[in-house]
Amino acid sequence: MEKIPIIRPTLPPVDKLMPKLQDAFTSGQITNARFVREFEEKAKEYLGVSNAIAISSCTNGLILVEKCLGLKGEVIVPSFTFCATAHSLVWNQIKPVFVDSERASCQIDPSRAELAITDNTSAILAVHIFGTPCDIESLQTIADRHGLKLIFDSAHGFGAVRRGRPLGGFGDAEVFSLSPTKLLVAGEGGLVATNDDELARKIRIGRDYGNPGDYNCEFIGLNARMSELHAILALETIDELDRNISRRNEIAAFYREKIDNIEGLSYQKVDSDDTSSYKDFSILVGDGFRLSRDSLASKLLNMGIETRPYFYPPVHKQNAYAYLDPGSFYLPEAEYLSERSLSIPLYSHMSDGEAERVILALEINSLG
Ligand SMILES: *Cc1c(COP(=O)(O)O)cnc(C)c1O
């Protein structure tokens, strides 16, 4: 039987890209030109924000946002996330202060975030885990109360909706990823969305070395431009996004209904007013299940079903962060999530038959 991968990018037929690629090649403009502008316009409309700035990656977008907001000292961040969330801070000489997550939502716990604030805190960097909006309003209230910036690593979240509003316009800025494991695919790429025009101006300069146009650099920037080739692919995949999100939600609804009947397994809670992009569908393997998370993963693999323990290890326990004295962080929920969560296959062109095979395999492994 054919293997079911954890994720597979949903790509347009290459023929669809040819006319625009031909234009780019004919004009000789192959980076940060007409198609990048066109993509930025389209993304801006989609997200309903005043600025959308295409970047070479989400990681670089985060680095630039933090730099251009002038963040320093400490920034509060979850540990149950992808490593790049925290890496972006360290590239800016900022200390990541890891706080715990909530078990049901898998999201940063706002009350824990507030407790971690000190005189050195300059911002909260939250994440919309698995493409599900986090508790934005509580975080904004806390940020306002303490005079902090609030930014979102929205790598997973393009197309997700919080109480009727698309992600992208919340906090000081949101940063999306367009890499192949995400829904909106440019090959590699990122996008900064913000309603702060001055921040947007700086990011545009910052992605171009810090050069405002006269080579008299305003600050130390990066080369974080998006190429035209990447923008051409993004322009195609953004048109398919809504269809892909609804297909993922259809499969997720099927998964939820079936998993409700399997003892010991649970899944991320999504507020009933929200729409998740379902970048990932992650299950939690609890004590009531007869196998550990890792044994379940290897049984599934033997049945041709690929899974990933997103996110393991938690960031504060990774070798790169040993210098922060990981023992000083008390993060029981993040550690629980990290040890128990397992992302199961979900991609936009997954067939009903494939989703049924995933469920059947979970059901078989739940029986003695
Ligand atoms: C993928 C991912 C990133 C990094 O995105 P790139 O575009 O690869 O730089 C950052 N944060 C989270 C939560 C991610 O999943």
Report on the structure:
By secondary structure, the protein is α/β, with parallel strands linked by helices. Helix content is 38%, strand content 14%. The protein has helices at residues 14-27, 34-47, 58-68, 83-90, 110-115, 136-146, 197-206, 228-239, 241-259, 293-302, 332-340, 352-366; strands at residues 51-55, 74-78, 95-99, 121-127, 149-153, 161-162, 165-166, 173-177, 190-194, 265-267, 281-285, 341-344. Strands 1-9-8-5-4-2-3 form a seven-stranded mixed β-sheet, sandwiched between helices. A three-stranded antiparallel β-sheet has the order 10-11-12. Strands 6-7 form a two-stranded antiparallel sheet. The chain is globular, with a radius of gyration of 21 Å. The relative contact order is 0.17. The mean pLDDT is 97. Pyridoxal-5'-phosphate is lined by residues 57-59, 81-82, 84-85, 127, 153, 155-156, 177, 179, 190.
Bound molecules: pyridoxal-5'-phosphate
Proportion of helical residues: 25-40%
Number of helices: 12
**Major sheet:** 7 strands, mixed
Strand portion: 5-15%
Structural class by secondary-structure content: alpha/beta
Beta strand count:
12
Spatial sequence of strands, sheet with the most strands: 1-9-8-5-4-2-3
Shape: globular
Encode the helix/strand succession as letters: HHEHEHEHEHEEEEEHHHEEHHEH
